[in-house]
């Protein structure tokens, strides 16, 4: 699982590649810390190359959203595949994020 | 400027650091007390009179003051409220907080004749008691008086505009204009009273709705934002969510559900009774849908929206709404979004193998 953080003006973008499963979650939680520290910016979670998300991955997304909401900012989840869409749908989190 | 006024101005400059310290304490004390008492206001502000402003005041009525401490508005604090009754509530709060110099305080709201209208504001002249500040090196913090003005937003608007019109031009205004300005004060007084009445009536309405919800008389309660919130406080989806969570021993994350009001209205619910019946009718199918979807996964976290979301999905599908109905449903839930079509398509595929519409009535 690879996570890359980039900045674009008032946006901070985390691009994920691979499977965000339980094994990868600890490292990914560490990798996304810059997002939590810059939660006043609009946060983009770019998932075009993400293959899978587990409960642990969902928890990371939720913690990012919680931090952003505390700063009045929003989180946009981009380019999810059908498997990840299904996870958001089944768990009832689909309306919690802006999904594009 | 006479020598006496110049002495007061010199005293002002010497005491300015003390006034600045006093200003900070007063501002914090007021903000903390408002928060503690749950009083929402438009603004809380303080200001220290400028040297120029003080010089102007002394030029007009300098002989009235023996020393700087005789001038009670060097430090001024002002609280602007939403409602007239809040002025009295905050006045009571100020009486508890500060020592009030009653002789010099004035309730300008009560100064008008029954047939006259104009400036409405409550002015308290206050001192800080030792319970708020007790500094042996600066005892004047307990003796300096400051002015606290309390007024509503509309009273403040009138006072500000009246001040602007009356003082900016520097010329005396014809009687007709003064009459028109004062006439507006009367209209704003009526508006202030009406806002207070509306707030009281809305509070009563909410209490009545909560009582009806608690008594289960849901058919008597029209569905709207207020009533739906009261309904949600009774946590009508908890049982279903817990059943769904038990599929994978999942934890439930609380999320807001208020946006489902639009969905229930779109599903033709007119009263909370209609919502309750819809839940009852579809909750078993909603559980079956969740079991069908989650049972084959190890997902151990769900949102508190999953129950109501699935109820709405099975309602749409069992009433023949199909993919288009699901897309409309997600537009109500998520707003217009290009993703809604993909979500509707996916949901339809996930749910199509289940049989819906088995009437539980």
Could you give a short description of this structure?
The complex is a heterodimer of chains A (100) and B (361). Chain A has 100 residues and is α/β, with parallel strands linked by helices.
Characterize the quaternary organization of these chains: heterodimer
Query: Approximately how much helix is present in the residues of chain B?
Result: 55-70%
* Arrangement of strands in the largest sheet of chain A: 1-2-3-4-5
Tell me the major beta sheet of chain A. 5 strands, mixed
Taking all Cα atoms into account, the compactness measure Rg of chain B is: 31 Å
Structural class of chain A: alpha/beta
What key phrases describe this protein's structure?
heterodimer, A: 100 residues, alpha/beta, Transcription Regulator spoIIAA, five-stranded mixed beta sheet, 41% helix, 35% strand, B: 361 residues, Beta Polymerase, domain 2, six-stranded mixed beta sheet, two-stranded parallel ribbon, elongated
Description:
The complex is a heterodimer of chains A (100) and B (361). The mean pLDDT of chain A is 91. Chain A is built from four helices and five strands; from the N terminus they run E-E-H-H-E-H-E-H-E. A five-stranded mixed β-sheet of chain A has the order 1-2-3-4-5. In chain A, strand 4 (75-78), helix 4 (82-91) and strand 5 (98-99) form a beta-alpha-beta unit. Chain A is of the alpha/beta class and 100 residues long. Chain A is globular. Chain B has 361 residues and is an alpha/beta fold. Chain B has two domains: 3-172, Beta Polymerase, domain 2 (2-Layer Sandwich); 236-351, no CATH class. Chain B is built from twelve helices and eight strands. Chain B has helices at 3-36, 51-61, 84-97, 153-168, 175-215, 225-233, 238-247, 260-266, 272-294, 306-318, 322-334, 339-351, and strands spanning 41-48, 75-81, 99-100, 106-107, 122-127, 146-152, 251-253, 301-303. In chain B, strands 1, 2, 3, 4, 5 and 6 form a six-stranded mixed β-sheet that branches. In chain B, strands 7-8 form a two-stranded parallel ribbon. In chain B, helix 1 (3-36) packs across helix 3, helix 9 crosses helix 10 and helix 11 (322-334) crosses helix 12. The N and C termini of chain B lie far apart (90 Å). At the A-B interface, helix 3, helix 4 and strand 5 of A face helix 9, strand 8, helix 10, helix 11 and helix 12 of B.
